[in-house]
Hints:
By secondary structure, this protein is α/β, with parallel strands linked by helices. Helix content is 33%, strand content 19%.
Amino acid sequence: xxxxxxxxxxxxxxxxxxxxxxxxxxxxxxxxxxxxxxxxxxxxxxxxxxxxxxxxxxxxxxxxxxxxxxxxxxxxxxxxxxxxxxxxxxxxxxxxxxxxxxxxxxxxxxxxxxxxxxxxxxxxxxxxxxxxxxxxxxxxxxxxxxxxxxxxxxxxxxxxxxxxxxxxxxxxxxxxxxxxxxxxxxxxxxxxxxxxxxxxxxxxxxxxxxxxxxxxxxxxxxxxxxxxxxxxxxxxxxxxxxxxxxxxxxxxxxxxxxxxxxx
Length: 263
C-alpha cells in the first residue's frame, strides 16, 4: 500500500536516484561502520547504505513506516521521536552488534546520517550536540537556508547563534545542493547536504553558558552588544576585557568561546 506523506512529521521523501547516489558517495559508508540513520522514511537512502554497510540502525517515528522497515533483516529499527533517543546509550547498543566492524578493536563512534524533518532540524542538531563525544561524523540533508547559517562566516547576514554553537564543536561543509524536485512531495525550499565532523580537541567550556551568552548577544542583532551582552556581563560582575561596541555578527566564534571560558 502506498504511504501518504504526513505533514505533521514533515515528510518529504527523496526520490531522485542520481541525488541519492551522490549523497551515499559523500557519506562513503564502509562495511561494518556503526551507522544510524534518522528518518529513513521509504528507505531511499537506507537501501544503498545497508548494501554497503551490511547492517544499519534506523530511527523512525512513523509507526507504519517503522513496521515496513522491520521486515528488512539487515535493519535494527528504533521506533521513537529522535529527540527522545539517548545517542550515547544507542552507540553502546550499536557497537554490541556482531556486524559492527568485525575483527577491529572497539568501541567505535557512531556515524549519523539522515534527511532531517525541516520543522525540527535545529532541535535535532542541538540534541546531538549533547552526545557529540560518541559521534564520528554526521551527514544531514537540511533546508539550504539552515546549512547556510550553520557554515556562515562572521559579518554576514547568515551568521548567528546556530553558526557559533555548531562551529565551536564541528568542522562543517556544505557538500551537495538538492533541488525541490528531488523529493515527493517537493518542498517549497531548496535543500542541501552538510558534513559535520566533531573537532578532535575542542576548547573545554560550559556549553550551557556559551548557549546563554550567544543567545543574549544575538537577541537584538541590529544593535551594538552593549545593549544586550554588555548588560548581561555587568550582572555577572564581569571584570575582563570584551569589546561590546560591536554587533554580535561581527564577533568570531573563537572570541565567543574565549568569553565563555572567563565570564
